[in-house]
Amino acid sequence: MPAGRFVLLDVALAQDAEIELPAEVAHQVRDVLRASLGDTIHLLDGRGATYPAEVVALDRRHVVVRVGSPRVRTADFPVRFVLCQGMLKATKFEWVLQKATELGVSAIQPLLTERAVAATEMTGEARQRRWQRILAEALEQCGGDRLPELGTPRPMMHALAQMPPGALALFPWEVADASPLRATLGEAVAERGGAHAIAEVRIFIGPEGGFSAGEAALAQRHGALLVTLGSRILRAETAALVAITLALDAFGALDAAPMR
User: Fold this and answer.
1) What is the pTM of this model?
2) Contact 108, 244 (CB under 8 A)
3) How far is CA 76 from CA 39, 56, 177, 253, in A?
4) Which of 11, 51, 113, 176 would give a disulfide with 86, using CB separation of 3.0 to 4.6 Å?
């Protein structure tokens, strides 16, 4: 079995324990990953630990694994990266959830904005559960350590007003005559005396129609920095991934958590 097979398991894990996998997870291990007796899979607890686990029993209904010694990251990157994403049409929003998880964001906050035409069709518990499944599958695919926190959709003003002390808000806006995101980050880090002074970076990305002038003004009143992602007008989902990547790279987070 390939070494990169990861499964998120929402149960308590302990070294040397033998556990029977829940039915849905057992199906994934047996029928999707095609595990056999003696194969090793990697169980993710979604909170920073990965456990190798040997398949010790397997039939059409049951899969039992023996849990090995956990691998725990000794030090997380000190800066939290939070994507505050204006609501998009379903497939585009779900794509952003998937890719942001693969890149390693700490949290994703869906935003209700003036031009978020898809907002009313994307609320409710069923939709939230679907989003959580998408995050879990993305974490399994990339072998990440932590499941991003996922907020419920809320107005943009709440995400601005509730930023923690030491947070830095970046607001890419195609209309703004602003500095590039990476240059703005560098200046902010220097002004604050180093990256250690920034506890969190929040990146605000608009919906398909972009942010309005009123929303940009609101963001500035709350201390957000208007930035540009370049001279081209990017689709919302493209802008999200570009902004996340630039911010992660500016802080060295991509080097701190290499792809596997």
Assistant:
1) 0.82
2) no
3) 30, 33, 35, 10
4) 113
What pLDDT, on a 0 to 100 scale, did the predictor assign at position 4? 60
Please say whether the beta carbons of 227 and 178 come within 8 A.
Answer: yes
Residue 151 and residue 214 share a domain:
yes
Confidence at residue 46, expressed as pLDDT on a 0 to 100 scale: 77
pLDDT of 99-127, one tens digit each?
Answer: 999 999 999 999 999 987 655 555 678 88
**Model pLDDT, residue 200:** 93
**93 and 65, same domain (yes or no):** no
Q: pLDDT tens across 201-251, in order? A: 999 999 998 999 999 999 999 999 999 998 888 999 999 999 999 999 888
Instruction: List Cβ neighbours of 259 (8 Å cut-off, separation of 6 or more).
Output: 142
The answer to whether 97 touches 131, Cβ cutoff 8 Å, is yes
How far, in Å, CA of 52 to CA of 69, rounded? Answer: 7
Place of tokens 């630990």: 49
How do beta strands 71-72 and 154-155 pair? unpaired
Query: For the chain, what's the residue count?
Result: 260
| Helix/strand/coil for 236 | helix
Task: Look at the chain and report how many structural domains it folds into.
Answer: 2
Phi and psi at residue 45, to the nearest 5° = -95, -5
